[in-house]
Amino acid sequence: MYFFIISFMVAFGGLNYYVGLWGWQIFGSRISFLDIKAYWIVFAILVLVSVIGLVRIKFLPNILRSRLYLVGSYWIAAMAYIIIILVAVDLIRFVDSWVGFLPQVIKNNPDFPLNMGLVVLTLLLILMIYGTWNARKIKVTSYDIHIPKKAGALSQLHIALISDTHLGTIDDQRHKKIIDKLNSLKRDIVLVVGDITDDIALFEKLGISNDFRTIRSTYGMYASFGNHEYMQKDLGVIMDQLGQAGIHVLRDVYVKVAESFYLIGREDKSSRMVSGKKREALEELMRDMDLKLPVLMLDHQPIDLEEANNAGVDLQLSGHTHKGQFSPFNLITRKIFKKDYGYLETESLQLIVTSGAGTWGPPIRIGTSSEVVHVIVNFDK
């Protein structure tokens, strides 16, 4: 853990220095009244504020903690895109030093670096504004699937699914938009597949539990934990708050719903950080089930698909990936997971991965959408 923290700090510091150095070379050296020491002091303060915001130091007032988190999150997104652009520029300059393909009129223009910097800042501002606007829109994504089993008296089940709301970090009332979308759907059951809250203290003080109690469904609302619940370690408080919100949390247990189907809630893989032990083997967890009935499972991360298939799970619902949240990080999630978004059928298992209803870190989405998922499950009659 300490090695990871130190490595992250070194990498984060190095990347910030790279961005700061470019900033000075493009802007600072061309502003006569700006002293290089003053520039680096201001830049260091910005980075320090961003770090404090991301860490969310709990003794800070709630409003200040939320605002600093917002500053830190936007800085992370801005830095990511600045680095991508600057690395591309450096590569172009390196290739030009060998091939010499850039026109001399550009290379000899003393104002070219400043103009390029202004273009980069303008593009960055456009990306941040668009990403913020896009993240606040919540769409409904629908799936119509068939499970070839009888489900008691049910021939069809309407599932309203959300994941990765990450509530309690920013007081922007986004949870009310999510609730409105859920309540607009035909829903027999509401399922929440992890990363519900990042800051349970703010979750409680913002009164989010009261708003969640306005959600109604035939069979209730169930959830599994994600890695962000375990990162907080206040599991008892989280369980209590979610219980007050009317959410039944399933942690490596299952329930039989309406004598028609089973619902499993898995402990997230990250639970080992808290408990020190692996989550229960799925085969053991399902030992006493009647597998003639449909089996639905909440597992925050879309992993261990072979285990789920072999154990007899019919439908796995997952989140976690955010579909990368903002490009080009979707390329990374595609490499990490067999399916980072959407629908996958493998042998007897069907998988649906949602991009999430909220955001983590930067409250932006570029190339992805915030969504509430409507799953229509058809059973044999």
Question: Explain this structure to me?
Answer:
The chain has 2 domains: about 1-135, no CATH class; about 140-380, Purple Acid Phosphatase, chain A, domain 2 (4-Layer Sandwich). The chain contains 14 helices and 12 strands. The protein has helices at about 1-25, 35-55, 60-100, 105, 110-135, 175-185, 200-205, 210, 225-230, 235-245, 270-275, 280-285, 305-310, 330-335; strands at about 140-150, 155-160, 190-195, 220-225, 245-250, 255, 260-265, 295-300, 315-320, 340-345, 350-355, 370-380. The strands form 2 sheets. A 6-stranded mixed beta sheet has the order 1-12-2-3-4-5. α6 links the parallel β2 (about 155-160) and β3 (about 190-195). The radius of gyration is 24 Å and the shape is elongated.
What are the main properties of this structure?
6-stranded mixed β-sheet, Purple Acid Phosphatase, chain A, domain 2, single chain, 2 domains, alpha/beta, 381 residues, 45% helix
Give the CA-CA distance, first to last residue: 52 Å
Q: Average pLDDT value?
A: 88
Instruction: Please mark out the parts with pLDDT under 50 across 5 or more consecutive residues, or reply none.
Output: none
Task: Work out the strand percent.
Answer: 15-25%
Strand order of the largest sheet: 1-12-2-3-4-5
Could you name the CATH topology of the largest domain? Purple Acid Phosphatase, chain A, domain 2
User: Which homologous superfamily in CATH is the superfamily of the largest domain?
Assistant: Metallo-dependent phosphatases
The coarse silhouette is: elongated
What is the N-to-C succession of helices and strands?
A: HHHHHEEHEHHEHHEEEHHEHEHEEE
Number of domains: 2
The tally of beta strands, per DSSP, is: 12
What is the CATH architecture descriptor of the largest domain? Answer: 4-Layer Sandwich
CATH class of the largest domain: Alpha Beta
Largest sheet: 6 strands, mixed
Count of DSSP-assigned helices: 14
Structural class: alpha/beta
